[in-house]
Inverse folding.
């Protein structure tokens, strides 16, 4: 609801528009779903599908000149830097992976459980690991290793989230649940820090 406020000598008076959040609108309501889901789909197709498709088509047309160091290389340098010559298109694969992640987060939302999201994200991550190992898109072996390592840690982090989200209250005590959560949390954090420091040290 728009509100108008301004300061004056006589106090606060309403003169300029301000927006106010309305927390009574439920994201699970029919109105919200009817209005915002189609809008999300429109932007998904416009930005998530069209832009990577246009980029790939443009790069494919100029694939023989893309690494020659001319104007074409300057235009697409941000997309091809670090990749081998026959894998100039790999950044499009990365964009598609990020697109799937966005779709999962937006369209598999569930207020009661994140299990479906976690499983779907694990599948996307595992497919990315397999494709990366098979295609070997990076010119540097170090970059290739860190890409695989980073995706593996994402997989482990998602699995840890499933463990923490699992309801085991009927099988183990509260103290055991606390110990389990602490172990999973600290191991996951340690793995992520190892990857971050390793990448920082290498570059």
């Amino acid at each position: 609801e728009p509100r108008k406020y301004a300061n004056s000598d006589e106090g606060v008076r309403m003169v300029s528009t301000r927006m106010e959040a309305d927390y009574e609108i439920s994201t699970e309501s029919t109105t919200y779903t009817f209005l915002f889901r189609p809008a999300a789909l429109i932007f998904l197709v416009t930005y998530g599908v069209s832009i990577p498709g246009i980029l790939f088509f443009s790069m494919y047309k100029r694939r023989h000149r893309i690494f020659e160091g001319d104007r074409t290389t300057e235009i697409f340098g941000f997309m091809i830097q670090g990749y081998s010559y026959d894998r100039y298109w790999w950044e499009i694969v990365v964009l598609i992976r990020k697109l799937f992640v966005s779709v999962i987060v937006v369209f598999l939302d569930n207020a009661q459980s994140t299990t479906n999201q976690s499983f779907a994200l694990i599948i996307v991550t595992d497919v990315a690991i397999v494709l990366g190992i098979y295609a070997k898109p990076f010119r540097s072996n170090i970059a290739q290793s860190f890409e695989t390592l980073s995706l593996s840690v994402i997989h482990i982090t998602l699995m840890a989230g499933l463990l923490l989200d699992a309801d085991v209250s009927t099988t183990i005590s509260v103290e055991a649940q606390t110990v389990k959560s602490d172990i999973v949390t600290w191991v996951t954090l340690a793995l992520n820090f190892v990857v971050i420091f390793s990448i920082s040290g290498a570059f």
The mean pLDDT is 77.
